[in-house]
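To whoever is covering the structure queue this week,

Two jobs came back overnight. Logging them here so there's a record in the thread.

Job A:
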Amino acid sequence: MKKQLISSLVIGALVFSTHASAEQVVESDRSHNEELIGLSSGIVVGAIVGGPVGAIIGGFTGTLLGKSVGDDDELKTQKAMLTEREQELVELNQQKQSLVELSDQYEQAQQQLTTLKMAQEQKLTELALGLNVQFKTGSSVIEPHFQQQLNDIAYAMSLSPELTLDLTGYADRRGDGDYNQALSEQRVAEVKNYLVEQGVAEERLNNQAFGDSSPLMAEQSFENDFFDRRVTLKLQNQNSALAANATK
């Protein structure tokens, strides 16, 4: 009798398990399916071990086992998702680090550009303070000392395409006025030609000459005549003056 009861419970559990499993497949309820499988398996095991009472106990135990299996699968899924998120965080941190490095490089480049600009402005200021080419009496030949000065001006203009240069020629008061006018024009022409040879575009150079009509000092003397024999150079910006005239 006991064996028949056990057999009936086993068969009933199997039928119940099969029927329940079919319904859960249709409904796609994963968590309930796992509990039902665990329940039926527990009933079978419990019936074999301990009869009807064992079947009841086994059913509860099987339910817990089925739930545990489901929890393990859920943990694996969660672990995979966590690993994926960790990888995303690593990539984001790497991108952030790259952006920080690019920002630092940009800031350094800006600082270097500012330093270069200040150095350039300082150089232009220095050139503007003494842009005079002096000449010997009756001569329009550019002396070597002033050639180096003109080389510096040509270089500064190559760095700043917006700059232009005004050239103004003078002569001392000795001799004929017409001769002195022609001599001052020749001096300006020599300076202009030299700068063109150094690569300065001719259209960036403006020239004029005043002969002996604009002496630096009212009193004529040997010393004052020396300073009157000159070509002055004035750097100009297209919008505003960058440098004042040197001594006239």
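Job B:
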Amino acid sequence: MMQVCLNGPRGAADGASVPMSPGAMADSAADAVLAGATDIHVHPKSPCGQDTLSPRAVAATLTEIRARVTVPVGVTTGAWAESDPALRLEQVRGWTVLPDHASVNWHEPGAEELAALLIDFGVGVEAGIWSGTDGAARFAASPLAPRVPRVLAEVTDTDPATAEASALALLTDLGTSSHGRPVLLHGEDGGAWPVLRLASRLGLGTRIGLEDTLYLPDGERASSNAELVRAGLAEQARA
């Protein structure tokens, strides 16, 4: 599995290649799928370019992307988009267009309640388990864990010299707590490519895109999500 993460919390300051509007996200998603991506993760944006869970922004983003692609499309529910757990639930309850899946970071306040709501809606939950947090332990104890279709193992170590070791430690922490669910392993910034290579060697799903890194494996600036996907698939083939 090669998921493309189109934009993340990045903004206009990160360059024109980062898609910010629903139309730009749809164009980028379509190009990434043509390049070989099989799944999409996107952060809907407010008019001022901030991550948002607002029903209007989520609906516009999903509608535009789905008009261009047929692969599954998922969104973030990160606490940085709405820090108040009660307001976050309220916004998600108001969604009029539902994603195929949504990532829920298990170390964040209100994760259990949010995941339960999404499951009730029929939305697949990607359990976001971050390195350096107690997410793995919380997920292991969660009664919802067996109902989660995929674990999103997120390595927050951005040092290319140590990111692989951090990824292996995270996988060890997950242990059997993944409940046999598929694991998508990825890194970020300097750790993105070492972790992608590790995931490929281990036969795990992975992802790449402008959320995770702005640079190609050779250090050149990436021009698009599609270019990163092509590079990611080439790295997979060499693993």
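Note for Job B: The domain at 2-238 is CATH 3.20.20.70 (TIM Barrel).

Please reply-all if you pick these up so we don't duplicate work.
Q.
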